[in-house]
Amino acid sequence: LADGGEQVVLLESGGDSNERQAGQDAAHLNEAVQTGLPLDGVQNGRSRMIGGTTALWHGQCMRLHQLNFSRRPWVAHSGWPIAAAELDRYYAAAERFLDVSGRGYDAARWSEHAALPPLPWNEDHLLHDFTEYTPRPHLGQVYRQRLASHANLHVVLHATASRVVVENGQVSGIEIRDTSRAPLTLATRRVALAGGAIENARLLMLSDDQGVGLGDGRAFTGRYYQDHPIIRTARIVTHDFRVLQDRYIALHHKGRRLFPKVRLAPAAQQRHQLLDATAVFVHDHDDPSREALRRLVLAARYRRRPQQPLQDALRSLGAPLSVLRDTWRRYAKGLATGARPSAVWLQLWIEQQPDPDSRIVLDPRRDRLGLPLARLHWRCSDLELKTSRQLTRWVADDLARLGLAQTQELPAMTDDAVWRQTVGDAAHPAGTTRMSADASTGVVDAQLKVHGVGGLYVVGSSVFPVCGYANPTLTIVALALRLATHLRTASAVTLKAA
Which residues pair with 252 in a beta bridge? Predict the structure, then answer.
């Protein structure tokens, strides 16, 4: 937008990404009340600073699948109001923005590792899957200088948006707070909320005297809260640990890092009425010498004294040989560690069925700015349980058929209560200001404008009607670029008319 001549003010609740306490001074504003399944990402998965949560991000990128955009009769409230193809060119632009190759996220990526043949999964049930890592995930660091020097872009730090001001159905400003003074109001006719799925919904509710939301679809604000349930369902006992370890930890090729996975085939999802899901093989490695070396390196990097310097120095004496071995494997063969794992686990990442009662509301308790806290109630449906168990059994069947491993099911495979006690979140909140064709089913329209409010837009994972299982950042960036294109076009039309 700024490159196109627009004057843009970026309000950042936290500080500069180079500040020593960046993200910590404003972390208390991430406090929330939880009443449902526990969400670790509410505190540990959000960051207030320039670059936001990319400061915590490992950098995994992939596109949502076409299936995720489609209306599926067996998945309640599924479907997007736009087709998957609508995002293709914006996905390509997002891949360039994030320095991702754009070479795809499916079985074709195995061609880059011709010496390592992929496992022949039963394609009636299972398909190959990949994510690709951006080499520079912390966007606050990557774009810091550009943000600071751009003539059309004005960054305001430690400025928490507390209310959208609307007059006669049109945005007229944004109320801003910090801890040192009374609220200020920035006059503007156009606002784009980009605070994440929790804060986008919360800010819309804070902007309404009844605490419900803004616009014609306000009743849906905060509803359909989704994340990516993560759960370990089985222990894998391999006959040759190298077969899975070489293929399913990380692959490196020409500066690109890939994470190979196994996903549910769309045809199997339809046939058995399942959600989208992917499986990864988590390898535990108990290596005290390498852990000691890692602690010493981190202490040196952050200029702090190790807690046990002598003990760690002695323990680390055994690490150089394994580090040399892993360095050779990484750069000569494009593979991860060659150490024998202490355990291998099957871990699943699952799409959620949108549930209107999985939601955010305002709580009577208040934060340090005097604003009501968000109260979250996260639920998982029986369809998530069914999907995880079926995927586990198909992976186990194929591992046995291929003679690679035996699978020991964990209690979550048969006990629903244990499943819900064991499941965790990926810190990928979504769905709380969902995109919809009209105000009868959602908060924002296909162009991300709040139904019935002029000049007010919402962008981020909060607008996802369904979030699939894909890491959301690439889709968030694609939608942001699409919104920027729409806003620039709208500006040009307005100027021409004037």
Answer: 257
